[in-house]
């Protein structure tokens, strides 16, 4: 095992190639000064495929086998096998960005379909073909607000209960701009609309709200938030996820200008936070020219047949450089492909049913936990989607640790608050989970 | 509106030829959109109050067999690394080993990011090992795996540089970038709030040290370089460049796009770079996925370790834990990055080991040099390494590339870097055999020998003919709803 | 190849023209410029009532592969914008000195000092 197993050269071929070039050795092709040559070792032994596979798998096996009741913005739904098999077709997964559209019609059409699904789900006219994750999509929405001429404000208002990862990324995305991030209060999990009204004025660039919220509550009266942003010439950005979009109020109908959020709830399992950033926005001329990320458009080929291509690329870094709408290049196209496949496999019936089940499961599970001594659930007197916060008499961290010992993972989100997320991926374990909770909360 | 299409079994008349033929070569499409194959509108009923829900939802409703055929047809109209040669310069289109996909599909790889550290020792262990591997490969003291792409790695690295300067009470305003650099470098510097100072190349295609001297000042936060540069040339003055940048207190940033040229032979850390990103979807063979996901880990010197993103994985006496570096820049991804991509990169490095990695570079450089010998287009700069930039000369490089599609190969990157007129930036990678390179060279030479009329009308043998970019941009139709509106 | 040049216009080296018409002047880009750009797909212009400043950027013209800044040959308030360009950017290619005009600006006569004459501009592009 002296070489790369994926380099096909035989010794005689290598010699023939060196001869053709006119050098004696591969070494002679490297024009690297002696002083910066590396002659050390990394100490990584080459392995057979079988041994490499075993090595990685054996480390992975150190992860505990837990049934997760975890969410807070990143969700595990059952992904049908058909998605794995189709998305893993090598023509898709081993292809590159579609800079030669004539040989990339398949992926372009799939991304065009993905964009169209988001247009339907959000009610907005434009969706890009992916951002990294919900957090970076939020960051991009904020810098979009700053670029819009119609917006003169610089304050970005976000709920005090924003997921810490999203807040952290947002802070970094605005670090190079004139924007500042401020929080507004929530009341019983949802936007405190009175308090928000006090904070929004003409210095506001963007108002951000989520539906469902990070604590699983479903917002009420988001249209008033839309109106508020509109009255003060601020962008209204709504954070959500691909399943919730099928059931909850359509973002366009509550006045959302931009929708961001997580798309990987469909198409990808938990994957340790590996995600897909949704990004959709209104389609008026000003926004269209400021959208971050890649866009696939329909056009015609030389025979006047419909064909697809990346378009409006002058927004992007490879043409506009330091004046690009974003520095994004590699995105999450393959995850978008998977998400589109999953949406299509569910169809509108299946997707709405999944969303309705998410409401039911949260309600029923909260009800079951509430019956236990030492638990009050849900904490918030709201409707819930997939997940809810429960109050526990014991310290939450201890409860979470005890549950982990029983084989279950939950979030500890406050001194005496745990958060529980239920989907079809863990529903079959609910009885055991409720029994375990009843044991550990005593 | 609903575009319910009639299905063949609902039709009473005899099928026309077009309806009968499965593939419609003369129609206005190759594979209908999912929406055209049949959509359904459902009224949304729910236990929730009506004012909290949407009214209806219209989406395609294919059966699983229909879905499988749809995406199989689409895949047949798409070119990947396994379709044929893919010498796309700066993109390092390697073969993506299948066993890495199997590892990524394991149930114990798909865990929630908010789990406790004690229950995720496997994942943390692999991340820590990968940090160590990448640190060793790049000559860096500490590595973060959080950035989800190369551009995100750049942003992370520049934020680290910014935080470093700020921690020294040093406000700097400029980032210097060679004119020939990747567009992301410029966009990243601007995103981090810096003014960009563009640096011209010298006649040999390398950093012009006199121009650099003139550009450097107390305002210089960083110089972003890739080495070998976008022409495939090693910056032989790199140590002098590093000294010049460090003399004014600047940070030297390494763009890892071209690291495949150096594995086991030279390390950015040894050249004087302070920060670097790795493109694992290039150098470490994770699939590009039609544009992503990638991953852009960032390595730094000891001095900059404290600024790395939160969280960072470290070893303890008994296992692994995450911690927040003392002066962390915070977060660049909602969680810990593109984990499954990182897992595949780890598996690739594990498989190749020292010898395989060094051989990958050797063969990548051998292949580029051999291919260059075989093609008729002029290559103005050298000696190059894993990639070269040929000039299409009197031809339009974009047209020449379209002509290459007719020979069943993917063309090189075109019209960039601009220092070479009508550039054909070519990177065959180590995976091609001599025989494949000979075939690829024949495609280059056939394109080179083609007359203007032929290349302007190419391609003629692909799923779609030349696509009208002007129409797409003047009249943006970005969804099937927009197509419906047009009709 | 020769390009149209309008002798009633004055020019900037960056290929913008200005043609006085009473109290106002129209501004656009030259035939040479539109040819260099290729198919124009988008034009970004200021709004009526905005001010433009001599030699400063006032907008952007985009083709498929390039983005170019537009520079104002004269200073003054924008009194009209050619809104047709928003839906028909091809007018810049088809008729750069006519229907492809961009702005109408209230200007000062003295603003013309230092602008290229048609002959000087022709010499520059040849």
From TrEMBL, chain A:
It comes from the Archaea. Residues 6-427 form the Glycine cleavage system P-protein N-terminal domain. Pfam families: GDC-P (PF02347). GO terms for biological process: nucleoside metabolic process. Its EC number is 1.4.4.2. InterPro entries: GcvPA, GDC-P_N, PyrdxlP-dep_Trfase, PyrdxlP-dep_Trfase_major, PyrdxlP-dep_Trfase_small. NCBIfam families: PRK00451.1 (NF001696). PANTHER family: GLYCINE CLEAVAGE SYSTEM P-PROTEIN, GLYCINE DEHYDROGENASE (DECARBOXYLATING). This is Aminomethyl-transferring glycine dehydrogenase subunit GcvPA. It comes from Halosegnis rubeus. The lineage of its organism: Archaea, Methanobacteriati, Methanobacteriota, Stenosarchaea group, Halobacteria.
UniProtKB/TrEMBL annotation, chain B:
Keywords: Aminotransferase, Oxidoreductase, Pyridoxal phosphate, Transferase. Residues 1-64, 447-487 are annotated as: Disordered. GO terms for biological process: glycine decarboxylation via glycine cleavage system. InterPro entries: Aminotrans_V_dom, GDC-P_C, GDC_P, PyrdxlP-dep_Trfase, PyrdxlP-dep_Trfase_major, PyrdxlP-dep_Trfase_small. SUPFAM superfamilies: PLP-dependent transferases (SSF53383). It comes from the Archaea. This is glycine dehydrogenase (aminomethyl-transferring). Its EC number is 1.4.4.2. One of its GO terms (molecular function) is pyridoxal phosphate binding.
From TrEMBL, chain C:
The keyword Phosphoprotein does not apply. InterPro entries: 2-oxoA_DH_lipoyl-BS, Biotin_lipoyl, GCV_H, GCV_H/Fam206, GCV_H_sub, Single_hybrid_motif. Binds 1 lipoyl cofactor covalently. GO terms for biological process: glycine decarboxylation via glycine cleavage system; protein lipoylation. Residues 24-106 form the Lipoyl-binding domain. The modification N6-lipoyllysine is found at residue 65. Transmembrane segments: none annotated. PROSITE patterns: BIOTINYL_LIPOYL, LIPOYL. It comes from the Archaea. GO terms for cellular component: cytoplasm; glycine cleavage complex. Gene3D superfamilies: 2.40.50.100. Keywords: Lipoyl. Coiled coil: none annotated. Pfam families: GCV_H. Its cofactor is (R)-lipoate. The glycine cleavage system is composed of four proteins: P, T, L and H. The glycine cleavage system catalyzes the degradation of glycine. The H protein shuttles the methylamine group of glycine from the P protein to the T protein. Belongs to the GcvH family. This is Probable glycine cleavage system H protein. It comes from Halosegnis rubeus. The lineage of its organism: Archaea, Methanobacteriati, Methanobacteriota, Stenosarchaea group, Halobacteria. The gene is gcvH.
């Amino acid at each position: 095992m002296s070489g790369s197993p994926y380099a096909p050269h035989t010794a005689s071929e290598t010699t023939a190639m060196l001869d053709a070039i006119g050098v004696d050795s591969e070494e002679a092709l490297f024009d690297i000064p002696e002083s910066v040559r590396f002659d050390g070792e990394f100490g990584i032994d080459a392995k057979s495929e079988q041994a490499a596979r075993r090595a990685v798998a054996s480390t992975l096996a150190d992860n505990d086998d837990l049934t997760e009741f975890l969410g807070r913005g990143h969700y595990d739904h059952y992904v049908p096998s058909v998605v794995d098999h189709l998305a893993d077709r090598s023509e898709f997964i081993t292809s590159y960005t579609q800079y030669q559209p004539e040989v990339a019609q398949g992926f372009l059409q799939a991304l065009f379909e993905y964009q169209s699904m988001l247009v339907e789900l959000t009610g907005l006219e434009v969706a890009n073909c992916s951002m990294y994750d919900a957090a970076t999509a939020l960051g991009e929405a904020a810098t979009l607000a700053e670029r819009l001429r119609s917006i003169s404000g610089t304050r970005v208002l976000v709920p005090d209960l924003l997921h810490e990862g999203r807040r952290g990324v947002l802070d970094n995305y605005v670090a190079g701009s004139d924007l500042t991030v401020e929080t507004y209060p929530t009341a019983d999990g949802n936007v405190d609309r009175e308090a928000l009204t006090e904070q929004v004025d003409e210095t506001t660039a963007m108002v951000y709200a989520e539906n469902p919220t990070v604590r699983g509550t479903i917002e009420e009266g988001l249209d008033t938030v839309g109106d508020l942003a509109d009255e003060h010439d601020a962008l209204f950005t709504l954070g959500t996820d691909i399943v919730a979009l099928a059931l909850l109020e359509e973002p366009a109908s509550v006045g959302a200008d931009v929708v961001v959020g997580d798309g990987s709830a469909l198409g990808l399992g938990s994957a340790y936070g590996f995600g897909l950033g949704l990004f959709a926005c209104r389609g008026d001329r000003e926004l269209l020219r400021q959208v971050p990320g890649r866009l696939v458009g329909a056009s015609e080929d030389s025979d006047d047949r419909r064909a697809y291509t990346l378009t409006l690329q002058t927004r992007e870094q490879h043409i506009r450089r330091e004046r690009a709408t974003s520095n994004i290049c590699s995105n999450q196209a393959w995850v978008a492909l998977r998400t589109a496949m999953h949406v299509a496999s569910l169809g509108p019936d299946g997707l709405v049913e999944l969303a309705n089940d998410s409401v039911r499961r949260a309600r029923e599970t909260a009800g079951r936990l509430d019956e236990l001594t030492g638990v009050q659930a849900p904490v918030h007197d709201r409707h819930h989607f997939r997940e809810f916060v429960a109050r526990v008499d014991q310290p939450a961290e201890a409860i979470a640790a005890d549950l982990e010992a029983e084989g279950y993972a939950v979030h500890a989100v406050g001194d005496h608050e745990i958060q529980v997320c239920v989907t079809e991926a863990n529903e079959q374990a609910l009885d055991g989970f409720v029994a375990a909770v009843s044991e550990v909360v005593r | 509106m609903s575009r319910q299409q009639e299905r063949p079994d609902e039709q009473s008349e005899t099928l026309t030829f077009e309806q009968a033929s499965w593939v419609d070569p003369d129609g206005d499409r190759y594979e209908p959109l999912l929406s055209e194959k049949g959509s359904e509108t459902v009224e949304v009923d729910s236990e929730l109050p009506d004012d909290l829900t949407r009214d209806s939802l219209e989406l395609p409703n294919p059966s699983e067999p229909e879905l499988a055929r749809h995406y199989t047809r689409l895949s047949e109209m798409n070119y990947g690394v396994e379709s044929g040669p893919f010498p796309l310069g700066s993109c390092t289109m390697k073969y993506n080993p299948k066993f890495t996909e199997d590892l990524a599909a394991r149930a114990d790889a798909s865990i929630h990011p908010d789990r406790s550290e004690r229950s995720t020792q496997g994942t943390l262990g692999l991340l820590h090992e990968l940090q160590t591997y990448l640190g060793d490969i790049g000559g860096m003291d500490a590595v973060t795996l959080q950035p989800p792409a190369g551009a995100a790695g750049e942003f992370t690295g520049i934020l680290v540089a910014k935080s470093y300067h700020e921690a020294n009470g040093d406000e700097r305003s400029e980032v210097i970038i060679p004119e020939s650099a990747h567009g992301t470098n410029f966009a990243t510097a601007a995103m981090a709030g810096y003014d960009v100072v563009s640096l011209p190349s010298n006649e040999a295609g390398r950093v012009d040290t006199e121009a650099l001297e003139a550009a450097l000042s107390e305002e210089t936060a960083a110089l972003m370089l890739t080495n070998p540069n976008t022409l495939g040339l090693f910056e032989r003055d790199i140590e002098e460049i590093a000294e010049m940048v460090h003399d004014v207190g600047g940070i030297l940033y390494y763009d890892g796009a071209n690291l495949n040229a150096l594995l086991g032979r030279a390390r950015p850390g040894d050249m004087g770079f302070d920060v670097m990103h790795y493109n694992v979807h290039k150098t470490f063979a994770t699939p590009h996925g039609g544009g992503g996901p990638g991953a852009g880990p960032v390595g730094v010197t000891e001095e900059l370790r404290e600024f790395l993103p939160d969280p960072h994985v470290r070893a303890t006496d008994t296992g692994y834990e995450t911690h927040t570096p003392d002066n962390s820049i915070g977060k660049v991804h909602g969680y810990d990055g593109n984990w499954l991509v990182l897992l595949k990169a780890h598996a690739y490095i594990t498989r190749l080991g020292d010898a395989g990695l060094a051989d990958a570079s050797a063969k990548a450089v051998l292949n580029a040099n051999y291919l260059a010998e075989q093609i008729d287009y002029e290559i103005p700069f050298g000696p190059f390494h894993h990639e070269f930039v040929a000039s299409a000369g009197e031809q339009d490089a974009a047209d020449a590339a379209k002509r290459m599609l007719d020979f069943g190969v993917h063309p090189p990157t075109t019209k960039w870097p601009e220092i070479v007129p009508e550039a054909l930036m070519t990177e065959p990678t180590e995976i091609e055999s001599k025989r494949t390179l000979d075939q690829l060279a024949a495609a280059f030479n056939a394109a080179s020998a083609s007359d203007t009329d032929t290349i302007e009308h190419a391609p003629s043998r692909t799923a779609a003919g030349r696509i009208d970019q002007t129409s797409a941009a003047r009249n943006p139709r970005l969804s099937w709803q927009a197509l419906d509106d047009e009709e | 190849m020769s390009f149209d040049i309008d002798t009633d216009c004055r020019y900037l080296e960056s290929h913008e023209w200005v043609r006085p018409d009473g109290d106002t002047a129209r501004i656009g880009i030259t035939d040479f410029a539109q040819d260099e750009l290729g198919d124009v797909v988008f034009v970004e212009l200021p709004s009526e009532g905005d001010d433009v400043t001599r030699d400063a950027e006032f907008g952007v013209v985009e083709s498929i592969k390039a983005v170019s800044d537009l520079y104002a040959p004269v200073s003054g308030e924008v009194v009209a914008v050619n809104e047709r360009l928003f839906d028909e950017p091809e007018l810049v290619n088809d008729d750069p000195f006519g229907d492809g005009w961009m702005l109408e600006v209230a200007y000062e006569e003295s603003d013309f000092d230092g602008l290229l004459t048609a002959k000087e501009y022709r010499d520059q592009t040849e």
